[in-house]
Amino acid sequence: MSAGVLGAADLARIEADLAATDDLLEKNYPGDSGVRQPIHTAYVPADRFTPSLPAAWGAAALAQAGGVSGLEALAGRLGLAQPEELAELVAAKLEREPLEDLRLDFEDGYGDRGDEAEDAAAITAAEQVAQAVAAGAAPPFIGIRFKCFEAPTRGRGLRTLDLFVSTLARAGELPEGLVLTLPKVTTIAQVSAMVFTCERLEAALSLPAGRLRFEVQMETPQLILAADGTVPSAALIHAGDGRVSSLHYGTYDYSASLGIAAAYQSMEHPAADYAKNVMQVAIAGTGVHLSDGSTNILPLGDAEQVETAWALHARLVRRHLERGIYQGWDLHENQLVTRYLATYAFYREGFAAAAVRLRNYVHHLESAIMDEPATAKALANFIRRGLVCGALTAAEVTSATGISLTTLESIALARATQTEDVNV
After folding, report:
1. Once rounded to an integer, what is the mean pLDDT over residues 400-420?
2. Last residue of some domain: 317, 343, 369?
3. What is the DSSP string of 167-181?
4. Contact call for residues 384 and 394 (beta carbons, < 8 A)
5. Mean pLDDT in residue range 373-379
6. CA 38-43-44 angle, 5° bins
7. Whole-angstrom distance, CA of residue 377 vs CA of residue 397
8. CATH no. for residue 62?
9. I need a surface site. Which of 83, 140, 180, 191 has the fewest CB within 10 A?
10. What is the pLDDT at residue 416?
11. Count of domains in the chain?
12. CB-based burial of residue 205 (10 Å sphere; 0-12 exposed, 13-18 middle, 19+ buried)?
């Protein structure tokens, strides 16, 4: 047998040449951290929030649907499989955790009411959030969207952010799921300004370094293609110094900025898909989440109008789930009905096949589908997401996959270069 020709010196040379690549991948592409991603973000004008709002939204949504029996009938009309199981699970969700993520809006949903009114509203909002958290009535994720960093609203946005965070911090420990939303971002410099703002707030309020993170709303074409031909939506993540938690697509501002007529502005316009495709590539491997936008066709009016809006919303939710976007916006309590029905149906309909494939992979069983570690990771992530949002139960998952929840987690969060060996 002939010997190889590459030696220790050659490996050392290659190691040195690739040290910068190794550092880049470790720092900028750490993979999924396991932090929960909510399936939606609900928006309400900031001055309308009270600790009772999440429960009120859930109760109103369930009543609009007609209770469990109404949910089952609606699931059937929407052509969803397992309507009885869906109805029971969604009803329980609306009672237990009606909102996964809530944003108190000081931007488009609030408008310009003058400095005195907004100052007071920012302080009150923080006090109300603190009360909700203390009472166990807050959603897992909650925060504010303040006005953008463009020149006309920059000072106002910073002041609202400062008053809200400062008041909340002085009330006690910040909520674990605190989320801050920076809207209408145009340049990486605005993200850098937000990083500086977070650092100043942390220092002044004696918060741990890195405690404040934020979402970036992609509502302008300049984040998809900059004047110099670069793609800022990718670069801004890395300029965010680990503070960017997610990118959110803004349906209507982005569509309007491209000159798309109002009647054709939607989450499924080709221009929307292009922007979200770019964003999806930008976040890959970074651990940053991606959210679709909203539809402004609300389930309101007579029975026919409500039914039509529900069907549209359910279809759009399913559409972005199938495209690998696991979060979207909801603007009205009645949209919770189809948010959960469509999401739960997505996971339940795909669960049996995913569980069998994962079971075969882990236990090395003969199968007509030969899955690799990357696919096993995708299968585990699919099941894990369904479990976290409530579409699947722990008993269903462990029984169907033949593995523990700990093993499921380890496969779902494994780095691409890790071994495929797991302990079931």
Report:
1. 82
2. 343
3. HHHHTSSPPTTEEEE
4. no
5. 93
6. 140
7. 15
8. 3.20.20.60
9. 140
10. 54
11. 2
12. middle
223 in Cβ contact with 185 (< 8 Å): yes
Q: Are residues 257 and 316 in the same domain?
A: yes
Domain that holds residue 200: 40-343
328: how many CB neighbours lie within 10 A of its CB? 28
Q: What percent of the chain has pLDDT over 70?
A: 97
Residues 395 and 261 in one domain: no
**Two tokens, residue 409:** 């987690």
Among residues 343, 365, 388, the one where a domain terminates is: 343
Strand arrangement of the beta sheet that strand 178-182 belongs to: 289-291, 244-249, 214-218, 178-182, 141-145, 101-105, 40-45, 328-330
Same domain, 258 and 356: no
197 and 330, same domain (yes or no)? yes
- The pair of three-digit structure tokens given for residue 389, joined into one six-digit string: 């949002």
Statement to judge: residues 234 and 177 lie in one domain: yes
195 and 332 co-located in one domain: yes
By the 8 A CB rule, do 31 and 412 touch? Answer: no
Identify whether 28 is part of a domain.
no
DSSP 309-320: HHHHHHHHHHHH
The answer to whether position 34 is within a domain reads no
As a whole number, the mean pLDDT across the chain is: 95
pLDDT value for 366: 79
Q: Which amino acid is at 71?
A: L
Token pair of 46 as six digits: 């900031």
Tell me the two tokens of residue 169: 């911090």
d(CA 276, CA 250): 10
Contact assessment for residue 116 and residue 130, using Cβ atoms and an 8 Å cutoff: no
Q: What is the pLDDT of residues 292-321, one digit of tens each?
A: 999 999 999 999 999 999 999 999 999 999
Query: Is the residue at 27 inside a domain?
Result: no
Q: Which residues contact 293 (CB under 8 A, 6 or more apart)?
A: 248, 249, 250, 251, 252, 254, 267, 272, 328, 329
Residue 183 near residue 191, CB atoms below 8 Å: no
State both tokens at 38: 């909510």
* Nearest Cα to Cα of residue 384 among 351, 360, 422: 351
Tell me if the pTM is above 0.85.
yes
Q: Examine the pLDDT at 419 and tell me if it is beyond 50.
A: no
Indicate whether 168 and 309 sit together in one domain: yes
